[in-house]
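Student: Send me a single protein entry containing the residue sequence and its fold in token form, directly below this note:

Tutor:
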Amino acid sequence: MVQTPSVVSVLDYGAVGDGRQDETEAFQAALDAVGEAGGGLVQVPRGKYRFEGTLRIPVGVTLEGTFRYAPAHAGLRDAGRAKPEYGSLLLPYAGHGEEEGPPFITIQENATLRGVAIYYPEQPRAGVPVPYPWTVALRGNNPALLDVELLNPYQAIDASANQRHLIRNVHGQPLRRGVLVDAVYDIGRIENVHWNPWFSMEERLFQWQMEHGEAFIFGRTDWQYVLNTFCFGYRIGYRFIETENGVCNGNFLGIGADDCWVALQVDQCAPMGLLITNGEFVSFHGPDPTMVVVSETHRGSVRLVNCAFWGPNHQIARIAGRGTVGFSDCTFMQWDRNREGRHAIQAVGGTILLRGNEFRTNAPQVELGEGVERAVIVGNVFTGTERIRNRSAGSVQIGWNASSGG
């Protein structure tokens, strides 16, 4: 049965891969056998594997399919493209209609899930999505999720209650929640995770996703690294919240959000800050398309550097709270699309830093409300005349800005 002491195939434990037999028992038996032997590799050959239950990948075990990079099964959306019928395809049925419940796959300490595609056959491509529990949960120290397609999960990745997770090369279309990070007290890493509508852009389903979907959610995570991530078509692209465990600080490089009602929402973050560099953000749909929203609960520090904001939106940023928000060397475009006189940056509280930015639309640039405690607005360039409205009773420095006039 065992090919080597540390490498087995799920076929050796009774799996068939015909899409009809429940493979839960066979997969778990293979995983447990390798775990009890001290760890190793469980291989998933090409096939369609149906699951009526859930799986647990034991400590030190890798569950690995045929893919060496996350595929894109756009054939469900686009006529003539390949359907999800090749490679190592996992088909969960458990948890239908229940948002709460055990995840489909739990990855434990020093364990890995790699090289598979996961597709929910009973998730309709039109109308309101069916709730399911999380597809993948990462627990313990050093769990990894690599080269995986999560084609149509209701909730994709629960990356909480672990340390030093690695989530890399994951694509798909989560309908309600993409990634949740919380209760992580040692450095976590998320790299090349892209949420695109490969599954469905049917009008009612996609509208529901844009009204309810949150692509990336960060609670307590200490020194999180996020690199080259993207989402399209959500209510909120990146959301930073406070949970019972605390708040986030981290380094976010090359992140993007396209066609989200709000690209970036900060309800709370740590005082050492969110460092966001080389981001690209687009908002143009929704009741009030705004790129960045900082809530009145915010007390931390957010710094955005060398980021670009465009799309026919209402505002670039709406800032409240008593924290610090800084924009440096950023490009702002296409705000005040209805010509209502909206300022690109509207702040009602906290500390505001605007340095070296380019405001490329001929519209009002900055409004400081009475509650703004401190502000520095220097070295920016404006299209048209300088239009800064300052009603702050705090300490405000404005100068060395350049406008094109007219």
